[in-house]
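Repro:
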Amino acid sequence: MREGTLRNEVQEWLNHWFARRRKSLPRPDSLPADFDYFAAGWLTSMEVVELVTEIEAHFDIEFSERDLQDKRFVTLGGLAQLIVGCSTQTAESAKVKS
């Protein structure tokens, strides 16, 4: 899958994930890429765990501790970049193994 297509898919998935939890959003795609969901207080510590777990399961990736501490992790666009990066690494690892 091309990186641009994957980034769009990831961004859409993230928007829907947050929209399901914040019913006041007019549309799932209404959140800007630079929206800092931590600064907005949208996630409890349990919700962070839930978000990470659901991302890893849905996109078949595993975040490293470094990924979770990356400054990009706090915005929708940054998180999408991290997911795409992890997906790319997973795909490349699978090619090497086969």
